[in-house]
Amino acid sequence: MIKKLMSLKLHTKLMLFFSAITLIPLLFLGIFTYQVSSKMVKEQVSKGIMGKLTQINKNLAFFSRDIEQLSNYIYRSDVVHSVLEKPESRTNLEKYQDFKQIETLFDSVLGTKTWDINLYILGFNGDRYFTGDYLPLEYSDIQANWGIFRKAEEGKGAAVWDTHYTIKHTGEQEVVLRVGRLIKSPQNEETIGYLVIDILETSIAELYQSDYEDTQNQLFLLDAEGYVISGFPSKTTIGTRMRHESMDNIMGSQSGFFDTNWNEKKYITIFDTNEETNYKIATFLPENNIVKSGRSIRFLTILLIIIGFIVAVWLSYFFSLTITTPVNRLNKIMKKVESGNLDVRFQAKFQDEISDLGRNFNKMIIKLKTSIKDSLEKKNRLQKAEIQTLRAQINPHFLYNTLETMSAIAKIKGVRTISELAISLGEMMRYSIKKDSELVRLEEDLSLLERYLYIQEVRFREKITIIFTVDESTKHLFIPPLLIQPIVENAIIHGLETKVGKGKLLIRIFSRNAFLYVEIKDDGIGMSVEKLAYVNRLLHHTETAGESGIGLENVMKRISLYFGDNYGLTVDSEKDTGTTIIMKLPILKEK
After folding, report:
1. Cα–Cα–Cα angle for 236, 239, 241, nearest 5°?
2. Are residues 179 and 160 in contact, defined by beta-carbon separation less than 8 angstroms?
C-alpha cells in the first residue's frame, strides 16, 4: 500500500491535498460556529439564573439579619432576665406567672411572621420555655461542651450559627440551622441561660421555591463546609456533605458557572456566595434545556463534521501509514520498556526524523539500564550501611564482660538484686552483640524488653505500674530487632520519670486487618501541641533522624528502610494527660 501511494502521479497527490485543505477547514469552521453559538446561549441563560441566585442570597441575608434581630430582642428583654434570675425553688404559681410572661414575649416577637422556627429559652435555674410542641431531649440537660451550647460559650453573648448536619426532625420538616447565644444578667454579666432558635428547612425553601417550582433545575444551599442546608426538588441530601465533582470549584470561588457531569448527564453548574453568611447557593441546570434553541445549528454542524470526518479519514489513512507505522512500533517498544524489559531495540530502516528518534531511544535504553543497575546497587549498599549504623552505634563487648564480672561478685556477696540487674543488662548487651540478622522473632525481642522492664521496675520501685499484654498468635512473627525497647524507654524517660506521683505504662501487641500493631501508652506528663507537632515533623522527615541519637526518629527510619513509608509510628499526646505511640508493621511469618 505504501509503494502504491509513493507511485501515485503528482496530479493525484495534489487533488488529495487540495481536497483536504478545502474540507478540513470547513469541518473546524462548523465546530467553531456551533461552540460559539452554544457558548453564547449558555452565558445568557447562566447570567439570568445568576441574577436569581444573587437575589436569593440577598433574601437569605435579610432573613439572617431578622433572625439575629429577633434574638437580640429576647437577649435584651428585662422579662427574660427577671425570670431566669429567679430561684428554682419558687412556687408553682410564680412559675406559671413567669410562663405566661415568656409566652407573651414569644407572641410579640413572632407576631405575624410565617417563619417555621422554634424558640427555646433554657435557664440555669431549671426553667425551660419553648414555642414548639415539645422540648427536644438535648435541651433538657444542658451540656456546655456540646454543639450549639459550646459555640454559644465561644460567642460570649453574640449570636452564633450552627450548621452541617441534620439536627432533628419534626414530621417531614428538618431543622437545618440553629442560632444560639448566652443570656447574661445585666447586673453582674454572669451567664443565666441560653437562647436557641431552631430554623426549619421550609423557612429557607420559602426564599427560593416560588422561582423553581416549574423547572427541572437542581438547587442546593450549602454552608461554608459544603453541607446541604436546603435543596430542591429533592430533600434527601439535607444535612449531608455534598459529594460532587464540582464541589472544589464551588467551594474555591465566590461565584461563576461551568459545565459538569452528574448521574451521566451534562449540567451547567451556576453558583453564588452570600458575603455575610458565607453560604453558597448552587443550581444544576440540564444542558439539554439550554441548547434546544440551537438544534438546527447542531444538525448542520454534525452533518458537516460527518462529511469532513469521512473525507479526513479517507485521506489520512494513506498519508499516516508512512508516519504511524514506525511510531506504533516505537510505542510498543516503549510499553515493553515501561513493563521492565530493557533488552528491546528499535529497528531503524530509514534516515528520517522518526528513525533518528528510534536510534536515540536505543541509546537512552542502554544508559537507563546501566543507570538503574548502578542505582539499585548503591541503594542496597546505602540501606545496609544505614541499618548497620543504627543498630551498632556503640560496641557493647566491654560493657557486657564488665557486667558478667559484676554479676559474679554480687552473687558471691549475696546481693541478689544487683546480680539480677547485672544479668539483665548483660543479656541486653549480648542481644545487641549477637543479633546481626535482619529479622528476629517477636518473642526474642520481647525477651530483651522484659529484661529492660525489670531494670526499670527495680529503679523506680512502685512509682511505675507496667501492664504488658501480648497476643499469643503474634509471638512467632518476624520483626527487625531492637524496635520496641527504644519506644518504651522514650515513654519512661520523657513521660513517666519526671511525673509527680505514680504512673502507669501500658504495652499491648496485637494483630488486626493483616497488620501487626505495638501500642505503648503512658499517663505521664504528655506533650504540648507545639512539641507534638515538632515530633511529628521529625518522624515524617526521617532523613534527619540520625542527628538526635537513638529515639523515635531512628525507629521510624529503620521501619521505613525495611518496609517503606506505609508503615511506621503514630504519636498522639496531650499535656499532663499522657502519650500514646502506635507502631504499625507488616505481618511476616517467615524471614
Report:
1. 95
2. yes
Number of domains composing the chain: 2
Which CATH number do you get for residue 285?
Answer: 3.30.450.20
Using pLDDT thresholds of 50, 70 and 90, give the confidence band for residue 533.
very high
In a domain, 443, yes or no: no
Residue 77 and residue 109 in contact, taking contact as beta carbons nearer than 8 Å: no
Q: pTM of the predicted model, to two decimals?
A: 0.46
Three cell numbers at 75?
A: 437577649
Residue 512's pLDDT band (cuts 50, 70, 90): very high
- Cα(220)–Cα(373) distance, rounded to whole angstroms? 57
What is the predicted pLDDT for the residue at 179?
93
SS3 state at 498 = coil
pLDDT at 426: 63
* Count of CB atoms situated within 10 Å of the CB of 332: 12
- Inter-CA distances, 5 with 19, 314, 318, Å: 16, 13, 7
- Strand pairing category for 515-522 and 503-512: antiparallel
Residue after which a domain boundary falls, among 239, 264, 295: 295
Cell of 385: 550501611
For 114-123, what is each residue's pLDDT tens digit? 888 999 999 9
Grid cell in block for residue 111: 407576631
Across the beta sheet with 578-586, what order do the strands follow? 464-470, 503-512, 515-522, 578-586, 568-574
